[in-house]
Amino acid sequence: MSAELLTVPEAMALLKVSRWTVYNLIRSGELASILVGERCRRIPATALDAYVTRLCEEAA
């Protein structure tokens, strides 16, 4: 199994948004994430791709 996991700062950079925005997307359920250990939040690259795809489909 080889899933790429992104940190919040990496997701911020890819989406070009703030930390606050990424955490709000996670809290709202719009962007899936996992907790590694007790404090390490990671976003699967596939979840980020799915989020962007949804945005593109909604915009069309």
Please give a structural write-up.
- The chain is α+β, with helices and mostly antiparallel strands and 60 residues long.
- It is 55% helix and 17% strand.
- It has helices spanning 8-15, 19-28, 45-59, and strands spanning 5-6, 34-36, 40-44.
- It has a 3-stranded antiparallel β-sheet with strand order 1-3-2.
- A hairpin with a 3-residue loop joins strand 2 and strand 3 (40-44).
- Helix 1 (8-15) packs across helix 2.
- It is globular and about 40 Å long.
The helix/strand series, from N terminus to C terminus, equals EHHEEH
Number of strands: 3
First-last Cα distance: 34 Å
The backbone outline, from C-alpha atoms, is globular
Roughly what fraction of the amino acids lie in strands?
Answer: 15-25%
Number of domains: 1
Structural class: alpha+beta
Q: Residue ranges: pLDDT <50 for 5 or more in a row? A: none
Mean pLDDT: 94
Spatial order of the strands forming the largest sheet: 1-3-2
Considering DSSP H and I runs of 4 or more, what fraction of the residues is helical? Answer: 55-70%
Largest sheet: 3 strands, antiparallel
- Helical segment count: 3
- Rg computed from alpha carbons, rounded to a whole number of angstroms: 11 Å
